[in-house]
Amino acid sequence: MRLLQGIALIACLGIAQMLGAASALAAERLALVIGNGGYSGAAMTPLKNPVNDAALIADTLRQAGFAVETVLDADLRTMKGAVRDFTRRLGEAGEGSIAAVYYSGHGFQAGGRNYLAPIGADLQDEVDAEFEALAVDWVLSAVEDAHKGANIVILDACRNTALSRSVGAGGLALLNSTPRGSFISFATAPGSTAADGAGLNSPYTSAIAAELLTPGRSIEAVFKAVRLRVVEATGGDQVPWDHSSLTSEIVFVPDAAAGGPAAIASAAPGSDVQLELQLWNDVKDSGSADQIRSYLDRFPNGAFATLAKTRLEEAETGSGDDRIGQLFAQLASRSLIVDTPTQPHEFYSNARLKEIRGDYPGARQDYLKYFAFGMPQVDPHLRFQSVLRVQEGRAGALEIYRSLSQGRNDPTTLFAEILLEERDERVRRLGAFLDAYPDFSPALYALSQDYSQTRLGQQSATDKARERDLLDRFMAAVEDGRFLGYYLDQQMAAEQVEDARTRLAALSFINPAALANPVRLNAMRSNQGWMLTLAIADRTREIFVKLPGGEPRSTGFVNGAVDPSTGAPIPYPAFELPGNAGDTAIEVSYLDIHGEMQGPFSVSFTPGDALVSGQKDILERLSTGWLAFRDWDGRKLLYFTHLISYRCAIQEVRYALDSDTPNQVFDTGPCDPDNPHAIPASGPGSTVHVDIPAATSFVSVELFYRDGTRSGVKRFDAGQ
């Protein structure tokens, strides 16, 4: 059994620019192959196949055009020397050269780092690893730094050992970073062990040798096919794991039509018909778009191409397949574990069942095997994160996911990693994620949650606007069929859709204009000048006003008033202008409830309109004071004093005695903008009352405002 949990292949194929398969083949290709099997001792038991594996891979790489250096049963000094000599040759190679490093033997993790075990290593605990073994990241860095070309590193090193638990006997750890221009494929999922093989070679190495020379395949397609072979050969015990930071397509063996030698093309084992049948049988019932696409990549005009395209469409849309329903029926009934899983949904089913039964280590292994297939669904990651939070806490889960997402061209895993960040960092990264993947609808929903009242407790107007925009985009994706395919658990997806609908309905009552500009200005003219009050459709911590030619100035705070929810002082919402102020453009900014500066927002002050609007507002709010009655010297007097004081808003006053149809006009006099509330000493408006019959029961009044509106008829009891 093999102990290396994670590093199977680092195809750091960062060629500066691939102009085609033929140009890739023309680049100088160098390979270092190491096979260690002659171990002795209780901790590192002998392995029968690494030497055979090294020979097989060396021959395969030679057929692919590599100049190969082979080292067998090497101690630490020999391994380091071989790497040193190899990197020297790489440095002498031309730009754009391709490097391949293959290792077969024991490997382990210690202190979160991965190590390759030399022959003769004396390993008892973690401290020994640094001095007795070869660190994988040292090898990767050495190869990467040696040249400006591509690097392939194959590490079939996940065999089981009798090392103590502290030295990581159960497999390799996840890589914390992926070298630039790299492709990394592990022999099996992180934390798992890999088979040494009952025959001459390990299942993993056998699969690589069988698939690597297939003409025209990209390296990603090669290792998808390798994964399928290994899963089938091991009954699901071993699932190879890939990392990639490639920016261009890499092809080991070009098609003959693309300029590759026919001799290399013919080296692929088996006929095309046999290969097609084998690959189709492997992928046809997987339900995986990636796996079905790997068949179409290899055989675009194959015998099963039409059927494959149909199944690819079904896999991408989530239709035409009842296995998901069967899966959740299985979970609900707590049915049996799949003993020999080979398909992604079977590994996921096993992970869920083991989780339900409390077998968290087993569940963790099966989740990681499922993730090796690069499936696009989100909910398995959400469930796995729940397991990790229990075992590792949030910080530990985030550390694992940072390693998990390294070098994987897999937006779902990256999205899942981002979900574990703290709120501010999560919001920043989700925004960047949506810039890169605008159609990834689960990210729209997740980011909308971060702006919701449930998540924030207190929302600013900006929060509401962002939440509404994200929910609009999310619901559009739902309607277009671009959401449900991201979920195996359709009930979980339905709950998210219902939550989005509920929140969007609540936000629909908000005036969009208020979200665009939440600031409104109310002006009141006194004989001393203008008092301008700001009505802001948001919760504020401080308000700033900028007048033409000036700088923004705080309006200050209400003396002794404190916001009970925050304990902060309440900002004073008003400021003054002189009575002779003309038309003025005002800019208003404010700190919102989160302390973020919003604005500036523009508001206009027009004295004439403001005077009418301000006085009209007072009249409408204090309508009971329009009229007053007084009995004096045997007469009944009807006073219009209040209306005269606010005559700048009034075009005409009509009234009637004991009738609801006002038909008499009372002259309030002209408006004096410089002294708008003063009652004239003489002329129109100086007479503030009229005599009415003592028997009058009521008086009706209607105001005609200067802005063209009317107050409606109001009745006042004249008394007896």
TrEMBL record:
<dbReference type="InterPro" id="IPR011600">
    <property type="entry name" value="Pept_C14_caspase"/>
</dbReference>
<dbReference type="InterPro" id="IPR029030">
    <property type="entry name" value="Caspase-like_dom_sf"/>
</dbReference>
<dbReference type="GO" id="GO:0006508">
    <property type="term" value="P:proteolysis"/>
</dbReference>
<feature type="signal peptide">
    <location>
        <begin position="1"/>
        <end position="26"/>
    </location>
</feature>
<dbReference type="Pfam" id="PF00656">
    <property type="entry name" value="Peptidase_C14"/>
</dbReference>
<feature type="domain" description="Caspase family p20">
    <location>
        <begin position="27"/>
        <end position="162"/>
    </location>
</feature>
<dbReference type="GO" id="GO:0004197">
    <property type="term" value="F:cysteine-type endopeptidase activity"/>
</dbReference>
<protein>
    <recommendedName>
        <fullName>Caspase family p20 domain-containing protein</fullName>
    </recommendedName>
</protein>
<dbReference type="InterPro" id="IPR001309">
    <property type="entry name" value="Pept_C14_p20"/>
</dbReference>
<dbReference type="InterPro" id="IPR052039">
    <property type="entry name" value="Caspase-related_regulators"/>
</dbReference>
<keyword id="KW-0732">Signal</keyword>
